[in-house]
Amino acid sequence: MSQSTPNASARNQTWDEFTEGLWRQNPVFVMMLGMCPTLAVTVSAVNALSMGLATAFVLVCSCALVSLMRKVVPKEVRIATYIVIIATFVTVVDYAIQMVSLALYDALGAFIQLIVVNCIILGRAEAHASKNPPWVASVNALGMGLGFTVGLFALGAVREILGAGSLFGISLFGADFQPWVVMVLPPGGFFVLGSWLLGFAWWEKRKQRLAGLQTPAERG
Which of 151, 127, 137 is nearest to 22 (CA)? Predict the structure, then answer.
């Protein structure tokens, strides 16, 4: 029993670190960070998923390296060091996307390079990775990256379905469907994001209301 309790506590802490970015502090729906790529590249599910995964890769790799170097980097140059680390992994992603698909690279445009200045990555490096060991920093970064990917995909899927009548390029409604052209235009991004934020806020209020109706014993 004395050995299982610490192990269970460690697993719970790891799970909490991972799920923080997926739900409680979701970068898109809660913290509302990285709004430029969120609104700009989510005209299709493929673009949204690609940008989300690229950002997640940079986030995990950079946070792991920042955590490894946290005790050797002088505080005076830590931000510059973080930016150099992030830019290195962004360059890797940039060349990788060019190698995989030039069409996707052109669709994402300058927003691939702009991952360097994404406040999610720099914020995680400064606020979390620089203060925690590599495993904890990596798990937390993975949760944040997947949370960002889920947020982008939620917008991209809705905009493609309503704006083009397809998902991942596969037609869903046939030739008679009349696309909502506004969904693939900039205003469509704001409409869909606002709708998701409204739904997210309603769900959180509902959870709080149900928790308030429970007795202390039921909550325990």
Answer: 151
pLDDT, tens digit, for every residue of 106-115?
Answer: 999 889 999 9
| Residue 3 backbone dihedrals phi, psi, to 5 degrees | -85, -35
Query: Across all residues in the chain, what is the average pLDDT?
Result: 89
| H or E element at residue 167 | strand 166-167
Query: Does residue 64 sit in helix, strand or coil?
Result: helix
Q: What is the DSSP letter of 22?
A: I
The whole-model pTM stands at: 0.89
Contacts of 108 (CB under 8 A, 6+ apart): 41, 47, 50, 51, 54, 97
Task: For CA atoms 5, 11, 13, 19, give the dihedral sign.
Answer: negative
Cα separations (Å) of 104 from 42, 97, 127? Answer: 12, 7, 32
Q: Which two tokens stand for residue 1?
A: 């029993």
Overall average pLDDT of the 199-214 stretch = 83
Torsion of CA 212, 218, 219, 220, to 10 degrees: 160
